[in-house]
Structure formats: C-alpha cells, structure tokens
Request: fold
Amino acid sequence: MNKILVIGAGRSASSLIKYLLDKSEKEDLQVRVADISIENAQKLIGNHTNGKAILLDIFDEKARKDEIKNSDIVISMLPARFHMKVVKDCLKFGKNLVTASYISEELKELDKEVKAKGLVFMNEIGLDPGIDHMSAMQVIDRIKDKGGKMILFESFTGGLVAPESDDNLWNYKFTWNPRNVVVAGQGGVAKFIQEGRYKYIPYQKLFRRTEFLEIEDYGRFEALANRDSLKYREIYGLNDILTLYRGTIRKVGFSRAWNVFVQLGMTDDSYVMEGSENMSYRDFTNSFLSYNPYDSVELKFRHCLKIDHDDIIWDKLLELDLFSADKKVGLKDATPAQILQKILMDSWTLEEDDKDMIVMYHKFGYELDGKKKQIESNMVVIGDDQTYTAMAKTVGLPVAIATLKILKGEIKTPGVQLPITKEVYEPILKELEDYGINFKEKEVEYLGYNPFNLGA
Amino acid sequence: MNKILVIGAGRSASSLIKYLLDKSEKEDLQVRVADISIENAQKLIGNHTNGKAILLDIFDEKARKDEIKNSDIVISMLPARFHMKVVKDCLKFGKNLVTASYISEELKELDKEVKAKGLVFMNEIGLDPGIDHMSAMQVIDRIKDKGGKMILFESFTGGLVAPESDDNLWNYKFTWNPRNVVVAGQGGVAKFIQEGRYKYIPYQKLFRRTEFLEIEDYGRFEALANRDSLKYREIYGLNDILTLYRGTIRKVGFSRAWNVFVQLGMTDDSYVMEGSENMSYRDFTNSFLSYNPYDSVELKFRHCLKIDHDDIIWDKLLELDLFSADKKVGLKDATPAQILQKILMDSWTLEEDDKDMIVMYHKFGYELDGKKKQIESNMVVIGDDQTYTAMAKTVGLPVAIATLKILKGEIKTPGVQLPITKEVYEPILKELEDYGINFKEKEVEYLGYNPFNLGA
Reply:
C-alpha cells in the first residue's frame, strides 16, 4: 500500500482527502491524515478503511520525522509559515512533497538539493495560486505554439457567495479567512503595467479603481488590483508584455462601499483602541469622526464621507448595524480591523445551507499574423455544502490529483516546482473537468486599452 | 576654562554655538565644536578665540571617547539614532549631557545609573520637543498652584516661512528637513481625546480634519493632528483631562491641497518606481492615474480627485509644474516620496533673502472655583537670516542656556530629564525673552467642544 501523508486537516483539506479516499481502493492507497486536532482528521476520514487519523504536533520533532519517514509522499496543508519543517524532513528522508502555498525564498534556495535527490516538490497547486497558473499557461503556451505574441494578460479570481445564497446588500459573505478580507490590500502598493505604462495604486485609492467583468449566466462583477502583478512577467515568460494585471473579483458595488471603511481607518490593524471591550458599534464608528455633541453620528458620518441620503452605500452600512448603540464589541484590546471583522461576521457568516462560489476570469491579448486577437476564459465553481465548498474543491482537488500523479511517476520532473509546464497542467486540468472545474473559452475582438494606438 | 563639547554642527547648531561663544569671555568657556565636516564646525565658530573646530567621526571610538573625557559638559546635536554612543561615554566618564531629542526607551533605562552618578542628562530641550514642554508646564503648574483643575490642553507648532518671504500659493517653503515634511503623518494613526472621547484619524483622512487658529497680527492658520497626543497625559500629569490634542501648524489651505498627494500615493516611501530616472514630472503624475490614451493627464487627475476647474488647488498644482513634460525627475530607483520631494524643492526652497518663522499656540482649559476658564498663549519667532533661522534659534538657544546653567550648577536635579520642572523652565523661559522668544498670553472665554454639556 502507498502511504500518503496529509499534514493539516483544516477547511481546505476536505475535498482533497475525499478524492484520495475515493481512489484508495483502485490505487492501493493508505491516506494518513495528521492534525493537531484528532477530531478534525477523524471527521474528514469518516469510517473509511483506507484512512487513518493521526494526532500530530508538527513541533514534536520525533513524531513528525517518524510520520514523514514512514510515508511514500507528503502533502502539507499547513499554514505557509510552518512548511519548512516538513520540507526539510522530506528532503532528508527522500520523500516527494505537494503544497498549495507560494514558494518562499527559503524553499527556492533548496531547488538544487531537491533536484540532486531526484525529488519533486510541487507547490502553488491549489486555486490561486494553482488553477490560475495552469489555466493561464495552457492558453499562453497554445498561443505561443501557434506563433502568436502575447501583448495582454489579465487574470482575476474571487471567493464569493453562490447566487442562491446571495441575500445581503453587499452580495458578499465570508467564505474563507475573514481577517484576510478585512486587511486585503494593505501589504503594499498595487503595481501593474497597462499598454507599456507602469501604474501604481495606493491603498487609499484601491477600492475606487475597479474595472468590470461580465460572465455569462452570472452577470456583472468588479475587480480590484492585486498587490504585485509585475512578478508574473518572469513566472509566465511574458517579459515584453504591454499589459499585465491581476485582480480580485467582487460583485459590483462592494468596493465602493468597502472604501468607506478604508477611508475612516476601520481596517487598520496596527494599533489597539482604548476601551474596545465595552464599546458599542456606534462608539466604534464615532471614534473615527470629529467630536461634536450636537450632531448625530449618522450625519457626521455622511458628511465626512459625502454619502447622499439616497445612496445605496447607506443601506449597506445600516444592514451591518454600524450605528447600533446596543450591540457591543466585547473584544479586549482590539484593533480597528479586529472590531470591524467582528461586526461583519454578524452579517456575513454563511448560514448552514449557504453555498460558496469561486470565479476566475482570464483575458489573453495576442498578435498573430499581423492581427490582434483576444481570448477570454472563465471558470465558475459552486460549493456542494459547507464541507465540500467551492474553495475546498478548487484548492484541494489539484493538490490531490498532482499527488497521485507524482506517486505514480506521471509527473516526475524533479526540483522545487510550480504547475506551469505541460507535463503538469495538461493532465490535471483534464481531470479537474470530471469534477465540474472547467473553463469556458471564447474568442472576442481585441480591445486592449488603446485600440487606435493613440499616444497617451 | 570650562570646556563645552558640541557634537554635530548642522543647521540647528548655529544659534547655540553663537550663544556660547558670546558668553565665553564672561563665563570662561572653551566651545569645542566637533563634526564629521571640519568646515561645518569652522563656519559656525568663525575666528572666535574661544572656539575650536574639531574633525570627529563619532564611529571612531577612541577619538570620541578622548574628546568626551576631555570636556566638562557635552551637547549632542547628532541625529537621534546616534545619541547612544555619546550617552554611554558621558555616563562612563561622568559628564553631564544635553540634547534636543526625544528620550528613547534605551536612554530611559539608564535613569538609575545616571542618578547614581549624580549626572544631569537633559533632553527634549529644543523647540518641539522643548519650548513646547516648558511653556505648557509653566501655565499648567500656575493653574494647578491656584487650585485649578485642567480640563483641556491643546498645543500646536509649525515651522513656516515668514510673512515677508511668503510668496507662493501654498504659503509654504521648506525651512527644515524636506523629507520629514513629505512623509509627515505616516508613522501611525493620529490619536487624541476630546471631551472624554478617544478619536483616531488615519493617514488618508489626516489632512482633511484640520482646525483653525487665529494669531493676532499673523492671521489665520490651520492645524492637523500629530501622531500620539495621549502620551502627554503622563508627561504633563494630565491623567484625567477631557481634551488633549497636539498638532502641526500650516497656513490655511495647505492641508487640503497636500491631501491630493496623499490620495494619489505620491508620498509613499515604501517602494521604488520603475524607470524613475528618465521620468518627466508628467510621467510621475500619470503613474498614479488610470491608463487612457484619449484623455489628458490633467483631466484624469481632476476627475480622479474631483477638483473643479476654478478650485485654488489646481493653481497650486500648476505652480509646482506637476504636469510638465519637460522637467525630468533624474533620480535613479527613487520612491514616490523622493520624487515628490524633488519636485517640491524646485518650488519650495528658500531664496537667499528668505526668512523662516516658528509659530506655537497653546490652549489651556480649566475649572477654578466652579467656573470654566481658558488661557491661550502663542509665540511667533522670525529668523534673522539663513544661518540664524527661527528654527536654529528656538532649537539651539534653550539647549545652550540649559547647558550653561547645568555647568554652573543652577540646574542640578540628576537623572535622565526633560524640562518640565520649575527649576528648569522658569530661568530658561525668562532668559529666552531676551532673545525675542516669548509668549503672548490672554484669558478668553472657555469654549471647549461641548459648552452646553450635551450628550454626544
């Protein structure tokens, strides 16, 4: 029996483990799921005879090394900062490794050693990073193979609520780590290139510089720029490309309303507010407004942010009870971001029957035989339920498929890898289609941002 | 002869050194001025027989220790981050020390040792910090001595251009380190308390939350909040105060226009712009605006920031040549803040005959015998020329006066000190009056922010 060790049985591991257990009979697998909580591991395995739940604290050197030594291949679904312990053991004991996380500088430096040992360390093979890499490279390689020259690449991903569960004014619920949503965009300036011009958007303008996307059957979405689009020039081999832009998808109107929190300073995670525990939501809101005993918090808020009384933003804010004097924060020594997260979780937590949705959208502009052309492709995945969410499927299934293919020697190029070569993306994208994860592609007229070639 | 060692002969040392040399005959002083540039030191000493210029690299351990050992008292006018080397030598060789910088955590920890050796390490005795401490504590102590209870303290300082040299639309020129002006407000949220309510202003709103000040003969000014006003509760013994606010003074309209740079991201010092060296000022500006080959940079700018064609902000921007396609940045691998600084220095550098001006304004609200009262006081100092600037006078003279008084044993309380006790502020404020540095004080009606005691 081939022993697959899955370390970390969090929310993103459900579909991954199900896939492996479903294949375990035919492929002769034992799926060993190790987690700091044995219940987490047990829950995802159920009563499957080929699954085994293991209590593992990854800081317990001996236990960790023993488990890794005893396995045929390792999947690390740990938070990214904990990967290196597993990486080093895999290198030592000669085990292949799969993760859905970005390749760190520290990991990149091990490439030579990994290659020398003939090992495959496959990373960035979840959703984003993961399916975005594979689906983009498939089209880019096809264009290049035909002799085309890439001139534009834009790519957008969003974790959203499914249309059937979309019942609040923000058209948004937390389908993943709420904290990441609250502090999104704060890591540094958003950089990209459009028609050969470098563009920079600071945090305070990020949510006002959206662009629109249309997806058949799903309507209109908006996208806001990710932090560093420019690094994808090197990764995707697009060094001379004129336009390169990556972004995050929301339903239309989300960003304009979210900008209110940004402008007031409610998303700040860098300091603790005085007396946060006993604050009402109204007190919290009032902390960011001028002192004035005569005017209401509501009017001060509207005036500060220039919100008209009939602006839908106002209804969105009321929906969150942002002005409630009764609801209490109840968090000691909390930052504004932590308090905002708490307020949002009252309204944006998924109900038991709610489903999530993943949307991905690519635009490829290229020149072929002197003509400019454009391909657009999109993927929409809806979750089955609150365990087998769209997020868990799109993150976990590529990891699981890759793991089995590495185990069987079908993916074998050694080194610290990401899924940008045909050997990897062709079979994985093909198999993902069996699970309803597929792209709709169409040729459209090339538009770009400067169709008539005017000087800007 | 008493040897006074002045380390650092930068712009803020001129008036300090002049004061000491002027007193040197009568007080039997030798003023030893040590700098990494012997020319700097020489220039400030001139031909004075009691002055001596010394070439000193403070990283040269032996030379530094020899100079300090050989002196009777030390003044460090080095950038704050270099003080500790001098501090440790002074402690070792038993020399008193004076600086105009904030007391660092590292320095604070030495308080016991300094006391044990009976030494005076006087800090924060320049302008801000310095004259602000002294002039505030003088009034606060007087109010408390009369049995009054402090309920409000607001304090504002600004380094500006003198009215006779105020000839641009911004009513501003760089009279001090331009870099500090460009990145001002970025260190963290502005915190203060008003009528018992904590208030927080994030960077993106800082320049839109100004308040006004009137100063007789000088007209109207505006003030924006400093980073952390709350720490002054402890320093000034104002623990139960309802309103505590410290701010920076500008001429009216400056902040509203400056906010344009903040919103666009032009003040960001955290990343390097691609191709900065060959950019025109217009390219720089365009980097922060949406790509569009049809619209002018001007119209995109106005639209993005909602600036009407007849708004004075527009004229201010044109005055800076922000849209010039001819003027080049010429700085390699520069951050937005560095480029903006370069653009501003074209327009805001003092001409040879220009003079600077320091403005300080305090408001003290208190209750005495059941009545609410208010005292306001202000100081305006104008520079003599480009050497003996208002900044050099207000920073350097308190340092110089304190040094002489410590040397003569008139200020003698040992420890790591700041000038908040009568022993220190009374004689120094009195002597500063001889140099035209004095406060105009008046009783006004108490206003506060909630005169009718309404609930907010």
Notes: The first helix of chain B runs from residue 14 to 27.
